[in-house]
Amino acid sequence: MSLQLINHSPDLKHLRDEGLEIEVKGGYLLTHQIPYLNHLKEIKRGILVSALDLASSNRTSAPSNHVIYFIGDYPCNKDGSSIEGIRHESKNQTLVEGVITNHSFSNKPANGYSDYYHKVTRYIEIISNPAKSIDPSLTEKTFKVIDDDEDSVFQYLDTNSSRANIDIINSKLKGQKVGIIGLGGTGAYILDLVAKTPVLEIHLYDGDDFLLHNAFRSPGAVSKTELNDRRSKTDYYASIYSNMHRYVYSHACYINGINIEELKQLSFVFLCIDRDLVKKEIMEYFLLENIPFIDVGLGVNVVDDFLIGSIRVTTGTQLKNDHLFQRVSCGEDLENEYTSNIQIAELNSLNAVLAVIKWKKLLGFYQDLKLEHNSVYSINVSQLTNDEYTA
Asked: Domain limits of the chain?
């Protein structure tokens, strides 16, 4: 992925062709072997690090930010004084796993930087000139090509995280094998959110086909041609989200006593089915195998020509699970209007958002001061209540 970006971006290719030692890591461009002087007037080598902006999956756009990061001592003039004209901030900062910067510099041309060649070479000029004035043979042009060892789960770079400097927080989600059981509505929105995270694998389970009514309570806009193809839900969604995430797996089946063992491989599961009797068996299996999970649910009824009801997110973990069979219905609810009212996509999506936020809290992405294991949002009073706290 990284070498493709370099090969297809004229500015990055220009840097590499001139012999600069560049690599792309996460959403950052690293330029190695930059000569400079430290405060003792010693010649050192550092690394410039710039967040990347992309015009497409394999081509850069003009940098939106003129600030650049640096790994090394603070660069100095020939007399050992700091180059103050570019000083921005000095602190150790982990931008992405394995990349810890020490300083950041600010030098903004009147019209900004036209491309990354312009940005990188300008900072090299400022940082390296004092060292080169002492030793004219110094150069940053090593002509060393760094192998592309990009192991990202994404089909293209996640520059959203790098722009916000949250790559290291995002990495807390890595390695997870996430299962989503049920893709009727809420489960599909959960997939939409989870596919944008660096989890290792996403496994989809549903035995139904993607039909007309599903289109009105699911993310995106399916075409009539795709509807007429009558594909399984899991195949349909896997084909879409594999455009973004490399490891989305379709399991076009219902979970039952015969295949439930397949879930043993998973790190976390979102349970998004309305067949309550099946839920009980699945939850008991999760408890037996110590697999943390979240069960989602909608309870919607018609009252005086209005829809009222609630959205529930119930979490089960090894630390807290004694509440599950009181909070999650394990008997068929024949009076629930949810099964017949299909145009409630906003409730499905909100249910998914609350579930994914809780999942990210469990992994330390978001701060969690309450440690609740059950949340209910009441629609008609716009109230979110939490209970079942971890002792």
From this structure: 2-160, 174-389
Selection from 221, 227, 218 nearest residue 191 by Cα: 218
- Angstrom distance (rounded) from CA 63 to CA 47: 18
158-161 long-range Cβ contacts below 8 angstroms, 24+ apart: 158/26, 158/27, 158/198, 159/27, 159/51, 159/52, 159/53, 159/54, 160/27, 161/26, 161/27
Q: Summarize pLDDT for 24-75 with one digit per residue, the tens.
A: 998 899 999 999 999 999 999 999 999 999 998 889 999 999 999 999 999 9
Residue 111 burial (CB count, 10 A): 6
Can you give the pTM of this predicted structure?
0.80
What are 227-237's pLDDT values in tens digits?
888 899 999 99
Fold of the domain built from segment(s) 174-389: Rossmann fold (3.40.50)
Both tokens assigned to 5: 């970006």
**177-181 and 201-205 beta bridge pairing:** parallel
Exposure string (b/e) for 183-212, b if CB count within 10 Å is 16 or more? bbbbbbbbbbbbbbbbbebbbbbbeebbee
Closest CA relative to residue 280, chosen from 260, 264, 298, 299 = 260
Spatial distance between the Cα atoms of 195 and 60, rounded to a whole number of angstroms = 23
Rg (CA), the chain: 26
User: Comparing C-alpha atoms, which of 137, 142, 127 is closest to residue 35?
Assistant: 127
Tokens in use for 32?
């190695």
